[in-house]
Amino acid sequence: MSGETRVRIGGDEEVVVARQKGRTLATELGLSRTEATLVATAISEVARNIVQYAGQGEIVLDAVNSSGRVGVRVVARDRGPGIHRVDWALAGEDASGGRVRLGLPGARRLMDEFRIESDVGKGTTVTMIKWKGGWRKK
Amino acid sequence: MEEEVTGSGHKLRPSSAETPLQDRFEHAYARAFHRHLAQTSEHGLHRAYELGREAVSEELGLLDLSAVHHRAVASALERLERQDAQGVLQVASDFFLQALSAFEMVQRGISEAEERAMLEKQHVAQLHQLADASIAINASTSIEGILQLVAERARSIIGAHCCIAGVQLNRERAEGVWQISHSERGARWRQVLGGAELFDLLAFLADTLRPARASAVSLAGEEPWTGLARMARGSVVRGCIVAPLLSPRERCIGLILLVDAPGGEFTEKDESILTQLTQVVSVAVDNARLYHRERRVAETLQRGLLPSKLPDIPGIALAARYVPGAAGMNVGGDWFDVVALADGRTGIAIGDVMGRGVRAASVMGQMRTAFRAYALGGESPDIVVARLNRLLPTLDPDHFSTMVYVTWDPTQTVANLVRAGHPPPLVVEPQGRTRYLERAGSLPLGVLPDAEYHLDQVRLRLGSTLVLYTDGLVEQQGELEDGLTQLERAVSGSGDLRAICDRVVDKVLPAQSVDDAALLMVRFGEK
Predict the structure, then answer these.
(1) How far apart, in whole angstroms, are the C-alpha atoms of residue B290 and residue B279?
(2) For chain A, N or C: smaller number of CB within 10 Å?
(3) CA of B47: which chain A residue's CA is closest?
C-alpha cells in the first residue's frame, strides 16, 4: 500500500483536490481518459456525500494490483451519522420510492467494485475500485 | 413552462434557448467552458461535472446538453481564433466528457433497472408456469404420467436440453419409473436412463437430501457429477442441477435432473424453482403410490372375498360377473353369494357396502361371511337380514349397506325375498316377459338397529330367471331409469346365462364407469 494519497475533505476546494489526485493516479496507471473521468466523477459523488452528511472526512487513493490487473482504489471515510439502510441507499431508491440516480448508487455504477460499511452514529466507509480496461465489466 | 422543459429532450432549437431554465443553464455552461478554456484546471472539470449533474436533476435531455456544448464551442472558436483550434477541441472534449459522466450514471442506473425488471418479469412468468404445472401434476394419478409431465414442464420452465424425472425405491431396475424430455441436442442423454449414473446420483441425494448444482467447469471434477461428465465425453455441458424427490418421512425416493442449460449456467433462481417443483411432485408421487397400493390391496381383497366358483346346485343355473370401477379408488363393497340350504331351498344374495377402498372391501368380506353363517341356519330372509343389520354397526359404524336376499323353494316354485335399500331384482319369465320386483322395499342396513325387514313372496316358475345386480351396473350419472330399461332389454333376448351376462355388461354397464358393478343371474328349473 505504498504511495497512498490522503485528502482531507471539508468543502468544495478539497473535493477538487481529490478529483485531481484521482485523475492523475488513474492516468499514471494507464487508465483511459474516459475511465479517469469516471473515477473523478465517482470521487465527486462520494466527496459530496461526505460534505453533505458528515461535514468532513477523508479520501484515500492508491493503486491496486490483483491477478494481473491494475486499478485505482478510492476509500472515502467519514465519522458522520452513518447510513441507516445501506441497501436502500444503494438500491437507488429513497424511502418515498423516488429515484436517486446520482449519489452513492451513481458512484457504484461508474466503478467496477464498490463496498460500503456503515455504522449508525459512527460513520461510513466507501471503498471502490476502477480497473484499467474494466469498462462496463461487471 | 416547467413541463415544456422536462419534456424537451428531443426539441433542439437552432438559436439560443427559449425557456428561462435552459437559458440560465446555457449561460452558465458557456461561462464555465470559456473560463476552463482560458485556464484548464481540475476546477474547471469539477464545474463541468456539476453542470452535468444540474442538467440531470433539471431533467435536461442529453441532446439539449450536446446543443448547449456545441454552441459554447462554436462561439469559443469564433472569439479565440488566434488559439489553436485543435487545442480548443481537446479541452472542449474533456469538459464535455466530464459533463456527460452524470448522464452516464443515470444511463447505467436505467440499464440496471431494466435488467432487474426483465429478470423480475421472467421470474413471475416462471412462477405462473410453476402453478400451472402443479395443477396438471396434481390432476394426474399415475406415477408415469406425473413424471412425464414433470420432465416436460421442468425443462420448459427452467430451460434445459434434457430433463430426467424418476422414482426409484430400491436398486432393482424393474422397480423404477423414469421419464425423460429432451431437445435435439439433449437426445444423447437418453443413455443415462438405465445407467449406473442415476443410481450414483440417488445415493448422493439420499445422504444430502438437498439439491445440487454444478457449473460447466466444476462438472468434471466433483461428486456426484463425475459419471455424467464421463458420459459427455469431453463435449460441453453447460451445467447440471438435480433435486431429490422426498417421501413424507424425508427419504429420497427419486430425483429430477436437468442437464445442459441453453442460456449458460443454471442459477440459484433455477434451483429455487426446481425445489418448489420437487415439493409438488413429491406429494403427488406419494399420493399416487398410496393410491395404487390401496387399490391393488382392495382389488385383491375383493376378488378373494367373492366366490371364486359358484356352487353346483341341481336344478339351478348360475352366472355372475364382477367389474371393478374403471379408475381410481373405486374398488367397492359389492358382493354376492349363493348357498344351498339344508331343506332343499336355495339362498341367493347380493349386496353393496357403501364406501370405497380397503375398508369397504373388508366390511363387505365380513358381511358376506356373516350372511353365509346366518343363511345356513335356515332362517327366512327377513330374519337373516335383520341379524345382518344388527351386525353391521359392530363391524363399522360408518358404513351403510344395501342387499337383496332371496330364498327359492323348488317344490313350490315360490321365492321369499327381502330388499333392503337395494335396486329391485328383475325377473325374466320363461316366455321372455320381464318385471322388476319393486314391492317390499325396506331400509338399508346400518340405518336403524331395530329396523324391520319386510318379507315379500313372489311366484317364480320353472324356467324363470332372476337377475340381481348392484347400482353400479345401471346407474349412469344418477340416471337409474335409463339403466333399468336397458337392463330389461339386454336380458330379454335368448342365449345361455353366461352369454346374457356378457351382453348385459357390454350393453348396460356405462363405459368408463367409476363405480364397481356386480351381476348375478339365476335360472330356476334348469341345469
Answers:
(1) 17
(2) C
(3) A16
Cβ <8 Å between A40 and B57: no
User: Closest approach of chain A CAs to the CA of B211, in angstroms?
Assistant: 28
The two beta strands, B441-442 and B414-420, are parallel
**A33 shares contact with chain B (CB less than 8 Å):** yes
Contacts of A96 (CB under 8 A, 6+ apart): none
ipTM summary value: 0.80
Residues B454/B439, Cβ–Cβ less than 8 Å: no
CA atoms within 13 A on the CB side of B317: 16
Find the residue in A nearest to B50 (Cα): A44
Tell whether A47 is within 8 A of chain B (Cβ). no
d(CA A99, nearest CA chain B) in Å:
10
pTM more than 0.80: no
Whether residues A37 and B108 touch (CB distance < 8 A) is answered with: no
Beta bridge partners of B415: B408, B458
Q: Hey, is the C-beta of A44 within 8 angstroms of any chain B C-beta?
A: yes
Q: Do the chains contact at B104 and A23, CB–CB below 8 Å?
A: no
* Digitized pLDDT (tens) for each residue of chain B, 527 residues in all: 333 443 334 444 444 445 787 889 999 999 999 999 989 999 999 999 999 988 888 888 888 888 899 988 888 888 765 557 778 888 898 899 999 988 888 888 888 778 888 877 887 888 888 888 888 887 887 888 999 999 999 999 999 999 999 998 766 766 788 999 999 989 988 988 878 888 889 999 999 999 999 887 777 677 888 888 888 776 778 889 999 999 888 889 999 999 999 878 898 888 988 988 898 898 888 888 777 777 777 677 666 666 667 888 888 999 998 887 755 555 678 889 999 998 889 999 999 988 777 777 778 888 888 898 899 888 999 999 999 999 998 888 888 899 999 999 988 889 999 999 999 999 999 888 999 998 878 999 999 988 999 999 999 988 999 999 998 888 865 566 688 888 998 888 778 888 999 888 888 887 766 678 899 999 998 64
CB contacts of A106 in chain B (<8 Å) are 102, 105-106, 108-109
Q: Does A134 touch chain B (CB under 8 A)?
A: no
